[in-house]
Design a protein that fits this description.
The protein is α/β, with parallel strands linked by helices. The chain folds into three domains: 64 residues, Vcp-like ATPase, Chain A, domain 2; 167 residues, Rossmann fold (3-Layer(aba) Sandwich); 38 residues, no CATH class. Helices cover 22% and strands 30% of the residues. It has eight helices and 17 strands. Helix 3 links the parallel strand 9 and strand 10. The longest helix is centred in the middle third of the chain and has 13 residues. The chain is flat, with a radius of gyration of 27 Å. 30% of the residues are buried. The structure holds S-adenosylmethionine. S-adenosylmethionine binds next to helix 3, strand 10 and helix 5.
């Protein structure tokens, strides 16, 4: 339940983030787990700094330093950001730099209803839930039944079930369901063929209008999605890429000539030249190239129903 509210101490059943200097892990706080033979055994979590007896975490304050058999780490409460870097991968996932842009572009605030397909590993879903709760709701769909079921169990275990409905459904074949027609403030698609989901998004978005965003690795997917968006009355189309850049900070020592003799003597006679001295600077250098393409975000607005079809 540790995703739901801030709390002081770790309870049995919480998901805890173990933060090490070289790694970060999510641990379910269960004193015992099943081994390969199906027997219940003590839950001992192995890390590069040695073993941690998970039962010893119960009652420990969040943020505390905990001893491992060969070192130490810190136990933190999970956030969507920490969950994205520790969750069990069932699919490729969307990470925090893209997620932050998606949340802003979808114009989400607490109270919004947002539709997501596919659910995948639930990385984005956790961030969507945090943004729209407590009165808003996330409707998330995946056509892979096992994935949809695991995601639903995970939301339940994280204490988030009341803010999210996770369904097994092929949204390209069946849409999002009649019960969601005209109910969504925003629709997000992370599917191989997002253009085929655009007509369903247009039906699901409220009469007052709303926002659309899709995530696609390839520009050909973007092109087809933009054509479909235009065809279905979306406006303000834009495609963007979020690239994270690391600025390398280093110390540089640069030799500096002392030219003060020029001011005094008005000549540039090398005989009068004073020796160079070293100046020390802290400098930031930007990389010459920016690797790290994840995907293109295509965003658009469906205007209110009374002006749909008009060109602005
Ligand atoms: C890349 S994953 C989504 C990852 C997710 N955004 C995250 O951050 O964890 C794409 C998911 O879409 C699902 N999917 C693909 N086509 C679908 C369809 N027509 N209807 C519903 N889900 C679909 C796949 O089963 C897969 O789980």
């Amino acid at each position: 339940m540790s995703f739901r509210n801030y709390k002081d101490k770790i309870d049995e059943g919480d998901t805890v983030i173990l933060y090490l200097s070289n790694n970060v892990h999510a641990i379910d706080v269960k004193p015992e787990i099943k081994n390969k033979k199906g027997e219940m055994v003590e839950n001992v979590f192995q890390t590069t700094f040695g073993a941690l007896k998970v039962k010893n975490l119960i009652g420990v304050e969040y943020g505390s330093k905990v001893e491992l058999s060969k070192g130490w780490g810190h136990v933190l409460q999970p956030t969507p950001e920490l969950w994205s870097v520790t969750l069990p991968h069932r699919t490729q996932i969307i990470y925090t730099p893209d997620i932050s842009m998606i949340l802003m572009q979808l114009d989400l605030v607490p109270g919004c209803s947002v539709i997501e397909a596919g659910t995948g590993s639930g990385s984005l879903t956790h961030a969507l839930i945090r943004r729209v709760r407590p009165r808003g709701h996330v409707y998330t769909f995946d056509f892979h039944e096992h994935r949809a079921n695991i995601a639903r169990d995970e939301f339940e275990a994280h204490g988030l079930a009341e803010f999210v409905t996770a369904k097994h459904r092929d949204v390209l074949e069946e849409g999002f369901g009649d019960d969601l027609d005209g109910k969504a403030d925003a629709v997000f698609l992370d599917l191989p063929s997002p253009w085929a989901g655009v007509p369903h998004a247009a039906v699901a978005i409220k009469e007052d209008g709303g926002r659309f965003c899709s995530f696609s690795p390839c520009i050909e997917q973007v092109q087809r999605t933009c054509l479909a968006l235009k065809e279905h009355g979306f406006q303000e189309l834009a495609t963007m890429e979020v690239l994270q850049t690391e600025v390398k900070v280093s110390r540089r020592t640069i030799p500096v000539r002392d030219l003060s003799f020029l001011k005094h003597k008005g000549s540039e006679n090398p005989v009068d030249e004073k020796p160079t001295s070293d100046a020390h600077y802290v400098v930031g250098t930007w990389p010459t190239s920016t690797p790290g393409h994840t995907g293109y975000l295509t965003v658009a607005t469906l205007p209110p129903i009374f002006i749909r079809g008009r060109t602005c």
